[in-house]
Amino acid sequence: MLDTLLHINEESTGEIDKTQIERLFVDLLLAGNDTTSATLEWAMTELLYNPEVLSKAKAELKQIIGKGNAVVESDIDRLPYLQAIVKETFRLHPPVPPLLPRKAGADVEIQGFTVPKGAQVLVNIWAIGRDDSIWENPNSFKPDRFMGSEIDVKGRNFELIPFGAGRRMCPGLPLALRMLHLMLGSLIHTFDWKVEGGFKTREIYFEEKFGLTLQKAKPLRAIPIMV
Ligand code: HEM
Protein backbone atom coordinates (compact mmCIF):
# COMPACT_ATOMS: atom_id res chain seq x y z
CA MET A 1 0.00 0.00 0.00
CA LEU A 2 2.84 2.39 0.91
CA ASP A 3 4.54 1.60 -2.36
CA THR A 4 1.39 2.37 -4.34
CA LEU A 5 0.78 5.65 -2.52
CA LEU A 6 4.43 6.75 -3.00
CA HIS A 7 4.07 5.92 -6.66
CA ILE A 8 0.93 8.08 -6.95
CA ASN A 9 2.77 10.85 -5.10
CA GLU A 10 5.77 10.65 -7.46
CA GLU A 11 3.52 10.98 -10.47
CA SER A 12 2.75 14.42 -8.94
CA THR A 13 -0.94 14.26 -9.65
CA GLY A 14 -1.49 16.30 -6.48
CA GLU A 15 -3.84 13.58 -5.17
CA ILE A 16 -1.83 12.88 -2.02
CA ASP A 17 1.35 14.42 -0.56
CA LYS A 18 3.97 12.84 1.70
CA THR A 19 2.56 14.41 4.89
CA GLN A 20 -0.88 12.98 4.16
CA ILE A 21 0.65 9.56 3.50
CA GLU A 22 2.53 9.71 6.81
CA ARG A 23 -0.59 10.75 8.77
CA LEU A 24 -2.68 8.05 7.10
CA PHE A 25 -0.21 5.36 8.17
CA VAL A 26 -0.01 6.66 11.74
CA ASP A 27 -3.84 6.47 11.84
CA LEU A 28 -3.95 2.96 10.46
CA LEU A 29 -1.21 1.64 12.75
CA LEU A 30 -2.64 3.23 15.90
CA ALA A 31 -6.25 2.24 15.14
CA GLY A 32 -5.47 -1.21 13.83
CA ASN A 33 -2.78 -2.74 16.07
CA ASP A 34 -3.80 -2.78 19.73
CA THR A 35 -7.49 -3.19 18.94
CA THR A 36 -6.91 -6.45 17.09
CA SER A 37 -4.25 -7.83 19.44
CA ALA A 38 -6.26 -6.97 22.60
CA THR A 39 -9.32 -8.79 21.18
CA LEU A 40 -7.23 -11.83 20.34
CA GLU A 41 -5.75 -11.91 23.84
CA TRP A 42 -9.22 -11.61 25.46
CA ALA A 43 -10.55 -14.37 23.19
CA MET A 44 -7.68 -16.71 24.14
CA THR A 45 -8.16 -15.88 27.84
CA GLU A 46 -11.89 -16.70 27.65
CA LEU A 47 -11.19 -19.94 25.77
CA LEU A 48 -8.58 -21.11 28.25
CA TYR A 49 -10.88 -20.23 31.12
CA ASN A 50 -13.84 -22.01 29.48
CA PRO A 51 -12.37 -25.34 28.29
CA GLU A 52 -15.73 -26.71 27.11
CA VAL A 53 -15.96 -23.81 24.63
CA LEU A 54 -12.38 -24.43 23.49
CA SER A 55 -13.10 -28.15 22.92
CA LYS A 56 -16.16 -27.32 20.85
CA ALA A 57 -14.16 -24.84 18.74
CA LYS A 58 -11.39 -27.40 18.23
CA ALA A 59 -13.93 -30.05 17.19
CA GLU A 60 -15.43 -27.68 14.60
CA LEU A 61 -11.99 -26.87 13.19
CA LYS A 62 -11.02 -30.53 13.08
CA GLN A 63 -14.19 -31.45 11.25
CA ILE A 64 -14.17 -28.56 8.74
CA ILE A 65 -10.43 -27.99 8.19
CA GLY A 66 -9.00 -31.39 9.04
CA LYS A 67 -6.08 -32.27 11.30
CA GLY A 68 -2.74 -30.95 10.03
CA ASN A 69 -4.28 -28.50 7.50
CA ALA A 70 -3.79 -24.76 7.90
CA VAL A 71 -6.79 -22.45 8.39
CA VAL A 72 -7.15 -20.04 5.44
CA GLU A 73 -9.34 -16.97 4.94
CA SER A 74 -11.84 -18.76 2.71
CA ASP A 75 -12.59 -21.22 5.56
CA ILE A 76 -14.04 -18.53 7.87
CA ASP A 77 -17.57 -18.65 6.42
CA ARG A 78 -17.70 -22.37 7.19
CA LEU A 79 -16.80 -21.90 10.87
CA PRO A 80 -19.95 -20.58 12.61
CA TYR A 81 -18.83 -21.51 16.10
CA LEU A 82 -15.51 -19.67 15.67
CA GLN A 83 -17.50 -16.64 14.48
CA ALA A 84 -19.74 -16.92 17.54
CA ILE A 85 -16.64 -16.94 19.79
CA VAL A 86 -15.36 -13.72 18.19
CA LYS A 87 -18.77 -12.03 18.65
CA GLU A 88 -18.99 -13.15 22.27
CA THR A 89 -15.47 -11.78 22.87
CA PHE A 90 -16.50 -8.42 21.38
CA ARG A 91 -19.65 -8.37 23.56
CA LEU A 92 -17.72 -8.74 26.80
CA HIS A 93 -14.46 -7.06 25.83
CA PRO A 94 -14.99 -4.35 23.22
CA PRO A 95 -11.44 -3.08 22.68
CA VAL A 96 -12.32 0.53 21.87
CA PRO A 97 -13.46 1.61 25.24
CA PRO A 98 -16.18 2.17 26.08
CA LEU A 99 -17.59 5.57 25.27
CA LEU A 100 -18.18 6.37 21.61
CA PRO A 101 -18.67 10.09 21.14
CA ARG A 102 -21.49 11.49 18.99
CA LYS A 103 -23.20 14.88 18.72
CA ALA A 104 -26.98 15.22 18.51
CA GLY A 105 -27.84 16.77 15.14
CA ALA A 106 -31.30 17.84 16.34
CA ASP A 107 -33.39 17.81 19.54
CA VAL A 108 -34.38 14.19 20.17
CA GLU A 109 -36.51 12.53 22.78
CA ILE A 110 -35.42 9.12 24.02
CA GLN A 111 -37.38 7.29 26.73
CA GLY A 112 -38.75 10.52 28.17
CA PHE A 113 -35.41 12.37 28.13
CA THR A 114 -34.76 15.26 25.80
CA VAL A 115 -31.30 15.31 24.25
CA PRO A 116 -30.82 18.85 22.96
CA LYS A 117 -29.33 19.65 19.59
CA GLY A 118 -25.54 19.97 19.83
CA ALA A 119 -25.23 17.85 23.00
CA GLN A 120 -22.37 15.41 23.12
CA VAL A 121 -23.61 11.88 23.57
CA LEU A 122 -21.31 9.13 24.83
CA VAL A 123 -22.45 5.66 23.86
CA ASN A 124 -21.26 3.06 26.37
CA ILE A 125 -20.57 -0.03 24.24
CA TRP A 126 -19.15 -1.93 27.22
CA ALA A 127 -22.29 -1.45 29.33
CA ILE A 128 -24.60 -2.39 26.43
CA GLY A 129 -22.71 -5.69 26.10
CA ARG A 130 -23.36 -6.50 29.76
CA ASP A 131 -26.94 -5.24 30.02
CA ASP A 132 -29.12 -7.97 31.56
CA SER A 133 -32.24 -6.59 29.92
CA ILE A 134 -30.68 -7.51 26.56
CA TRP A 135 -28.49 -10.52 27.31
CA GLU A 136 -29.25 -13.61 29.36
CA ASN A 137 -26.48 -14.26 31.92
CA PRO A 138 -24.56 -11.28 30.55
CA ASN A 139 -21.38 -11.97 32.51
CA SER A 140 -20.98 -15.54 31.24
CA PHE A 141 -18.96 -16.33 28.13
CA LYS A 142 -21.50 -18.29 26.07
CA PRO A 143 -20.81 -18.16 22.31
CA ASP A 144 -23.78 -20.48 21.76
CA ARG A 145 -26.07 -17.45 22.24
CA PHE A 146 -25.00 -16.35 18.74
CA MET A 147 -25.54 -19.71 17.02
CA GLY A 148 -28.45 -19.31 14.62
CA SER A 149 -28.76 -15.65 15.63
CA GLU A 150 -28.90 -12.85 13.05
CA ILE A 151 -26.92 -10.47 15.29
CA ASP A 152 -23.60 -9.37 13.82
CA VAL A 153 -21.01 -6.68 14.56
CA LYS A 154 -21.48 -4.63 11.41
CA GLY A 155 -23.35 -1.72 12.96
CA ARG A 156 -26.90 -2.92 12.23
CA ASN A 157 -27.60 -4.45 15.64
CA PHE A 158 -27.19 -1.76 18.27
CA GLU A 159 -26.85 -4.30 21.10
CA LEU A 160 -23.43 -5.27 19.66
CA ILE A 161 -21.45 -2.40 18.14
CA PRO A 162 -17.73 -2.96 18.88
CA PHE A 163 -16.87 -1.20 15.58
CA GLY A 164 -19.32 1.65 16.16
CA ALA A 165 -22.16 2.36 13.75
CA GLY A 166 -23.19 4.84 11.11
CA ARG A 167 -21.00 6.89 8.84
CA ARG A 168 -18.12 7.18 11.32
CA MET A 169 -17.94 3.46 12.04
CA CYS A 170 -14.62 1.66 11.86
CA PRO A 171 -13.29 1.43 8.29
CA GLY A 172 -10.91 -1.37 9.38
CA LEU A 173 -13.77 -3.81 10.15
CA PRO A 174 -13.28 -6.16 7.16
CA LEU A 175 -9.52 -6.44 7.79
CA ALA A 176 -9.92 -6.83 11.56
CA LEU A 177 -12.57 -9.55 11.28
CA ARG A 178 -10.59 -11.52 8.72
CA MET A 179 -7.38 -11.32 10.77
CA LEU A 180 -9.07 -12.20 14.07
CA HIS A 181 -10.80 -15.33 12.78
CA LEU A 182 -7.67 -16.41 10.96
CA MET A 183 -5.33 -15.88 13.92
CA LEU A 184 -7.66 -17.32 16.55
CA GLY A 185 -8.60 -20.28 14.37
CA SER A 186 -4.94 -21.00 13.62
CA LEU A 187 -3.85 -20.75 17.25
CA ILE A 188 -6.46 -23.17 18.52
CA HIS A 189 -6.33 -25.56 15.55
CA THR A 190 -2.54 -25.88 15.59
CA PHE A 191 -1.81 -26.03 19.32
CA ASP A 192 -3.12 -27.20 22.63
CA TRP A 193 -2.67 -24.54 25.31
CA LYS A 194 -1.74 -24.50 28.95
CA VAL A 195 -1.93 -21.40 31.16
CA GLU A 196 1.40 -20.74 32.84
CA GLY A 197 0.98 -21.68 36.51
CA GLY A 198 -2.73 -22.54 35.92
CA PHE A 199 -5.69 -20.21 36.40
CA LYS A 200 -5.83 -18.83 39.93
CA THR A 201 -8.84 -16.60 40.29
CA ARG A 202 -11.09 -15.22 37.56
CA GLU A 203 -10.49 -11.70 38.87
CA ILE A 204 -6.75 -11.78 38.10
CA TYR A 205 -7.18 -12.92 34.53
CA PHE A 206 -10.13 -10.73 33.65
CA GLU A 207 -9.02 -7.48 35.26
CA GLU A 208 -9.12 -4.61 32.77
CA LYS A 209 -6.71 -1.77 32.23
CA PHE A 210 -8.34 1.38 30.90
CA GLY A 211 -6.41 3.17 28.18
CA LEU A 212 -6.67 3.92 24.48
CA THR A 213 -7.80 0.33 24.12
CA LEU A 214 -9.30 -1.93 26.77
CA GLN A 215 -6.33 -4.18 27.53
CA LYS A 216 -5.91 -6.94 30.05
CA ALA A 217 -4.30 -5.60 33.24
CA LYS A 218 -2.25 -8.78 33.50
CA PRO A 219 -1.06 -10.26 30.20
CA LEU A 220 -2.09 -13.82 29.40
CA ARG A 221 0.89 -16.17 29.52
CA ALA A 222 0.03 -19.44 27.86
CA ILE A 223 2.23 -22.28 26.67
CA PRO A 224 1.54 -23.80 23.24
CA ILE A 225 1.81 -27.56 22.82
CA MET A 226 2.03 -28.89 19.27
CA VAL A 227 -0.86 -31.24 18.47
C1 HEM B 1 -10.80 -5.51 16.67
C2 HEM B 1 -10.50 -4.55 15.84
C3 HEM B 1 -11.09 -3.17 15.80
C4 HEM B 1 -12.12 -2.61 16.54
C5 HEM B 1 -12.99 -3.28 17.60
C6 HEM B 1 -12.26 -1.23 16.09
C7 HEM B 1 -13.21 -0.35 16.60
C8 HEM B 1 -13.34 0.97 16.19
C9 HEM B 1 -14.34 1.89 16.69
C10 HEM B 1 -15.38 1.58 17.76
C11 HEM B 1 -14.17 3.06 16.05
C12 HEM B 1 -15.03 4.33 16.24
C13 HEM B 1 -16.23 4.17 15.32
C14 HEM B 1 -17.38 5.10 15.56
O1 HEM B 1 -17.17 6.23 16.03
O2 HEM B 1 -18.55 4.72 15.24
C15 HEM B 1 -13.05 2.90 15.12
C16 HEM B 1 -12.57 3.88 14.29
C17 HEM B 1 -11.53 3.70 13.41
N1 HEM B 1 -10.87 2.52 13.11
FE1 HEM B 1 -11.17 0.75 14.03
N2 HEM B 1 -11.33 -0.97 15.11
C18 HEM B 1 -10.60 -2.13 14.90
C19 HEM B 1 -9.60 -2.31 13.97
C20 HEM B 1 -9.20 -1.39 13.04
C21 HEM B 1 -8.24 -1.63 11.98
C22 HEM B 1 -7.58 -2.98 11.70
C23 HEM B 1 -8.07 -0.45 11.31
C24 HEM B 1 -7.22 -0.10 10.12
C25 HEM B 1 -6.20 -0.81 9.70
C26 HEM B 1 -8.94 0.53 11.96
C27 HEM B 1 -9.05 1.85 11.59
C28 HEM B 1 -9.91 2.77 12.15
C29 HEM B 1 -9.96 4.19 11.80
C30 HEM B 1 -9.06 4.89 10.74
C31 HEM B 1 -10.98 4.76 12.56
C32 HEM B 1 -11.44 6.23 12.58
C33 HEM B 1 -12.60 6.39 11.63
C34 HEM B 1 -13.20 7.80 11.64
O3 HEM B 1 -13.26 8.42 12.72
O4 HEM B 1 -13.63 8.27 10.60
N3 HEM B 1 -9.61 -0.08 12.99
N4 HEM B 1 -12.58 1.61 15.22
From TrEMBL:
PROSITE patterns: CYTOCHROME_P450
Membrane found in the keyword field: no
Keyword entries, A-Z: Heme, Iron, Metal-binding, Monooxygenase, Oxidoreductase
Domain of life: Eukaryota
Binding of heme, residues: C170
CC cofactor: heme
MF terms in GO: heme binding; iron ion binding; monooxygenase activity; oxidoreductase activity, acting on paired donors, with incorporation or reduction of molecular oxygen
A Pfam family annotated for this UniProt entry: p450
Entry-linked InterPro entries: Cyt_P450, Cyt_P450_CS, Cyt_P450_E_grp-I, Cyt_P450_sf
Keyword Cell inner membrane: no
Record-stated family: Belongs to the cytochrome P450 family.
Name of this chain's protein: Cytochrome P450 76AD1-like protein
Organism taxonomic ancestry: Eukaryota, Viridiplantae, Streptophyta, Embryophyta, Tracheophyta
